[in-house]
Each structure stands twice: as C-alpha cells, then as structure tokens.
Amino acid sequence: MEQLFSDGIRNTPSSFIREILKVTESDEIISFAGGLPNPISFPTKDLNESANRVIQQYESKVFQYATTEGYEPLREYIANRYQEKYNLSYHKENILITTGSQQALDLLGKVLINKKDVLAIERPGYLGAIQAFSMYQPTFTGIDLENDGLNTNMLKDKLMQTKIKLLYTVPNFQNPTGITYSFEKREQICGLLSDCDTVLVEDDPYGDLRFEGENLPYIGANKLPNSVLLGSVSKIITPGFRLGWICTQNKDLMKHLVVAKQASDLHSNIFAQYVTHDYLTHNDIKSHIDKIRQLYKLQSSTMLQAMKQYFPESVKYTKPQGGMFMWASLPDGQSALDLFHRASEKNVAFVPGDPFYTDITNAPTFRLNYTNSNPEAIQEGIKRIASVM
Ligand code: PMP
C-alpha cells in the first residue's frame, strides 16, 4: 500500500535511537546509547504519596476530561518558577501543558511549517526535533555548532540569504553534544533575530541539571516577540508522565497551538498533571534536583577520566557543564558507524553521529550518554570502546 502513505510520513526518518535501543536491551550490553535519566532519580515514594493524596482530595476530577491548556495550578507553578529563577514575566496564560516537550515540537511544526519553509537547526541537532519537523516537509538548513554555541557568522549569512521561518536551539547542555551557549553567543543571536520575524525555539529539558558554572539567561525568552521556550518534567521528575510545556508571550501563536493540541489529543494526562503539581508543592524540589546534579556530576567526571585514560589523543570530546551527554569526534575520515559495529561486538553501545545531521552520512562523531550507567560500567564501557578504536 506504499502509494497510500502521506508525503509527510514517507519523508520522516524512523528513530535510529529506537532501533539501537532494541539492540541494547540485553543485560550484557553496556549502553551509552539511550538518553535515559537514571531511574534512581525518580521520586517514587513521594509520587506514590501524591497520587494517593490527589485521589482522596479531588476524587473523580483527576480521572475526568480536562481543559486543553492544562491544569491551572500547574501552569501557575511553572510560570512562577520561571519568574523566580530567570526573572521572566510569564503568567499561566503563557503556558500550554503538552504531552512531553516532544509534542511541543510537533505542535510547532503543525502550526508554523508549510512544505519547503526553511527551518534552521543546530548542526549536529536533536534528532527528535529533526524527526518531528520532518513530518511537515520543511527545507532544513544546518547552522554549525561550535564549543560556545551556534556559529553566529553562519547564522547571520543564512538570515540574509533566505527567509528562515524557525530557528531551533537547545542552549543548555545540548542534545547531542552537551554544549552550552556562552552569554556572548546568546546576546548575539538575540541581536540577529531582533531584526526579523523568525520564530526562535529554545528547547530546554536539561536546564535544571547544571553541575558546573553559573545559570545563564535565555536567548530570546521574554525578549523577542516571536520566541518560544520549551520545558519538561522528564529529566527532573519522570519521563513516564509525558508532561512538558510550551511558554510564549505571543498570543496569536498560543491560540493556534491550543487548537492544534485540541485536534491532536484534547489534553495531556490530567492525573499526571495533578500528581506533578501536588508533588512539586509538597516536596523540596530544589534538594531533589541537587541530588540528581550530584549523581550526574560523578558519572560525567568518571566518563571524562576514563576517556582521558583509554582513548587515543586524536579522539576529541566535549566536557559538559550539565545535562546527560558528551560528544566525541574521531579523526577525519573515520566513520563512527563502523566503530559502532565493532563496539557492539564488545557489548558496548553509543549513538553514531549520522542521525543528528540532515546532510551527511558516515560522520566521524558519536554521542555518549553517562546518566544511566554506574561508574564501574562507565569505566568498563569506555575501555571496551577504546579497544576497538
Ligand atoms: N528536546 C530535547 C532536546 C530532548 O533531548 C528530549 C528528550 N530526549 C526532548 C525534547 C523530549 O523530551 P520529553 O520527554 O519532554 O518529550
């Protein structure tokens, strides 16, 4: 029935990571491939208490259909948190609860992208965003990612050459590289976008997970009229609830996003929204996040030490200040996909760079996740990868 499928789905790559995760399900494999939070960071007992409490307190309401925009107290909580932490003047009207921030990407695609619209993304970029946007058949243009953020000369040239509808960024502890944009780069990007109507998307699921350095202001949130900020509970509470959010002060955009979400799934899981709000207001979320940060700091430094010890000097890698990923580069001409196959034979996995680009194959780069392996496994896994380099 090939001729029956839409152009959108035929143009959308299947998630390479899902394919890899199938290979890495065996217990013998040390996997740095997935982007999984460490399950010991899930506040199971506190969530259990919150689940019981909201059922007692709100009874059938927690199981009923609900509004598309999301549970009001949760939207208020999120707005207040941005106000306190980043001095952003968001209110509940600026927040739409989504089914993970992944849905936020899909809704932005639905609302903004016509076929062949030019969409700028980091190069390399988050493959889930490439996948979500591909459905709407844009023309992707990659902006090189440097150690301190986007190559702003390249961005400037592209903005001058062509009309860019949307610029997608992950400014903190980027997926896949772990890179964080510097203050200067953030200001430069904001300056470049202030002259045009390009929609800036700042996707920030990892922002709370900083274990080194100071928090930096967002690029355009609260500054540029066409700016969108995405957040999620996936990395600080649990990904299984599938709860994220879109923040924007642009009322027209918000209106269309709400309609697109209505058409998509009516609303996100209301029970999970009640439980999340109860959990956030009955527990010390700051100290919970501090524990996750300490854990990831140890795992990240263990991986860095192991790479220093075992990898040849010609292999370069990023040193993240937070988040869940590192990005390694083999000398030019070498393929990380080949390395992946050799490493699989040694029962260790990572994600080769190809799916993070829209324009190259056999990239010499690969992504390593450090949050879902204990320090011993991290040491051993890096040693095994080094043995087939
Ligand atoms: N954006 C980025 C940059 C991510 O890394 C992820 C998770 N892998 C997502 C969005 C999706 O997260 P969520 O669980 O909130 O849908």
TrEMBL record:
<dbReference type="InterPro" id="IPR004839">
    <property type="entry name" value="Aminotransferase_I/II_large"/>
</dbReference>
<dbReference type="Pfam" id="PF00155">
    <property type="entry name" value="Aminotran_1_2"/>
</dbReference>
<dbReference type="InterPro" id="IPR015421">
    <property type="entry name" value="PyrdxlP-dep_Trfase_major"/>
</dbReference>
<keyword id="KW-0808">Transferase</keyword>
<comment type="subunit">
    <text>Homodimer.</text>
</comment>
<keyword id="KW-0663">Pyridoxal phosphate</keyword>
<dbReference type="GO" id="GO:0030170">
    <property type="term" value="F:pyridoxal phosphate binding"/>
</dbReference>
<protein>
    <submittedName>
        <fullName>2-aminoadipate transaminase</fullName>
    </submittedName>
</protein>
<dbReference type="InterPro" id="IPR050859">
    <property type="entry name" value="Class-I_PLP-dep_aminotransf"/>
</dbReference>
<dbReference type="InterPro" id="IPR015424">
    <property type="entry name" value="PyrdxlP-dep_Trfase"/>
</dbReference>
<dbReference type="InterPro" id="IPR015422">
    <property type="entry name" value="PyrdxlP-dep_Trfase_small"/>
</dbReference>
<feature type="domain" description="Aminotransferase class I/classII large">
    <location>
        <begin position="56"/>
        <end position="385"/>
    </location>
</feature>
<dbReference type="GO" id="GO:0008483">
    <property type="term" value="F:transaminase activity"/>
</dbReference>
<dbReference type="GO" id="GO:1901605">
    <property type="term" value="P:alpha-amino acid metabolic process"/>
</dbReference>
<keyword id="KW-0032">Aminotransferase</keyword>
<comment type="similarity">
    <text>Belongs to the class-I pyridoxal-phosphate-dependent aminotransferase family.</text>
</comment>
